User: What shape does this take?
Amino acid sequence: MRTVDRLNKDWLLATEIHKLETRLWRQAQKSQLRVVLLTSAVRGEGKSTTTAYLATALGMYPNRKVLAVDLDFREPRLNSHFQVDVPHGFGEVLRGKCPLQNAIIKTELPSLDLILPAISDDSNLLLKTQQFADIFVVLRERYDLILLDVPALLPVADASMLLPLADAVILVTMAGKTTKPQLRRAREICAGMEANILGIVVGNLKEAMPGYGDSSYYYSYQKEGRPERGGADSKAEPKK
Assistant: This one.
């Protein structure tokens, strides 16, 4: 599988992803989180890449049951990382033309499954809120952790409609690209929907901040409603 091969070859990336995976899994178990949504302020910030590698790392443990769902019907990207056949897209399930089980794709990792949209799926399907709610009632029973890759928050309203599906949200940003006003607005949208912002993942650090070290990612988790040092309103400092 492409994501597994990349993690096996790039130990720096693998190290950072496994750190993120460990913290997310521990927090999910502690707080009984079942569905975690990953989004960004604007497009091109690496949310699908982060979701793909994070799901892969989570799925490497045989005692877990993990599902990654691509809900970006406008520009689906998750399959570009997994490169699997999509015999039945999620849109067919929402239209009632396919049972949910037929849309679940098994990966080479026994602990990781996928649900992906077909190229022809219309973003208006995201308006089928009751169908989504019914589907996720079933999925919550089947999986220990579900990762949702959704569109960016600022360009379209898709992500806002999907926020109620999740127990927690992770915002993905890219160093040198995302501006403070953009990230602040994204957080305001989440807060307006009463979403639980679990943390912030910052990518591209090695290129944008050479002094930070060899890490590709920086992450911060919320604590008692306030971001830890290095979160959205502070500047990540180089490792000592």
Residues 223-240 have pLDDT under 50 and may be disordered. Strands lie at 35-40, 66-70, 105-106, 112-115, 145-149, 168-174, 197-203, 217-223, 226-227. The chain has one domain: 2-227. The domain at 2-227 is CATH 3.40.50.300 (Rossmann fold).
